[in-house]
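Dear Dr. V.,

Thank you for agreeing to look over these. As mentioned in my earlier message, I'm a first-year student in the group and I'm still getting used to reading structure tokens, so any feedback on how I've presented them would be very welcome. I ran two proteins. I've put each sequence directly above its structure. The first is here:
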Amino acid sequence: YRPIGEVVVHAASRRLTALTLDNLDDLSRPCRSCVSWELDPVAAQRAQDSGDVALEKEAWLSAVLLGRGSCGFVAYTGSQPIGHVLYAPPSMVPRAASFPTSPVSPDAILLVTAFVQPEQHGAGVGRSLVQAAAKDLLQRGTRAIEAFGDARWERPACLLPAEYLSVLGFQIVRPHDRWPRFRLDLRSTVNWREDVEVAVERVLGSVVREPALRPV
């Protein structure tokens, strides 16, 4: 699939751009220099020890783009990156297999992680990023997005807060006291007369505003 390009959102000077190798460096520093999702634990540690994390991140993104197409968006205010979202087939996210609530359903794409700069919390950036991902995946025939949540989330990390996923409309499909697995069915509200834009608004229409003090 060809990565979709720029998405204009209804906010002053804010835009969302598909993640590519050209703007990979616009990911937040923790995510740009982390491959805990992209590699199995042994390979990730090897990359850390050798200092090859940046190269491994690039190689992973290149493989996903070539094999599956777009897999993320970066949000900007003007030219300043303010957040991002990453998603990919679970087969391309080795860490997914390590969770007690795995595996991800075969008809779903995994929402890997998302981040919004603290000064932008509550401004709808996270919602816009997830909506852009949903629109992209709906256009490509994906049935659902799944994600592992952290029920004890306290600070920004690789996992999203379970509470936040619930606010976005995700439903728990595999309960766990720490790492429940969530699902957002992208096609349950779509029929042959509805276009993608309407479908996205119906799926995520219950989101009025973002919870305060959340990473996305």
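The second protein is here, in the same arrangement:
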Amino acid sequence: MRVHFFDGIDGIIPIPLARSRQKERGYNQSEEIAKGIAVLTHLPIYTDIVRRTSFKESQTHKNRWQRQQNVEQVFELAPKYKTELACSSAKESPSHLSLDGKHFLIIDDVCTTGATVNACCQELMKAGKMKFSFTSVGWTKE
């Protein structure tokens, strides 16, 4: 039986961790999940498109509203993608992956309200129109 979930997806973007959080853990669990999916799907993993600029505090004991506030403006596009729209309108050829029109699989380790994924996707959309699919290995109740 063939699974069609991954059809049409151009690449995988794991939810990034703040540098301090990744240094503390030694790895990014979302990136590790992405590596496993990439082995099966042969999709490229992009860890340089969006980054997390800060880690305010854990989402664990927050309600839906607090989770949303906790992740507002903690992601930013890498500098080379901030000028993507200007390059494409000037008919210049960017020296990196064009994000406009792409379909990305966003991976988070655990999802509760989707606030983190939503915040990340909102930042990504600043580089153009794109489509997102999402997967997680864990779901929790609020």
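From my reading of the second output: Confidence is low (pLDDT under 50) at residues 84-94. Residues 60 and 113 are 11 Å apart (CA to CA). Does that match how you would interpret it?

Kind regards,
E.
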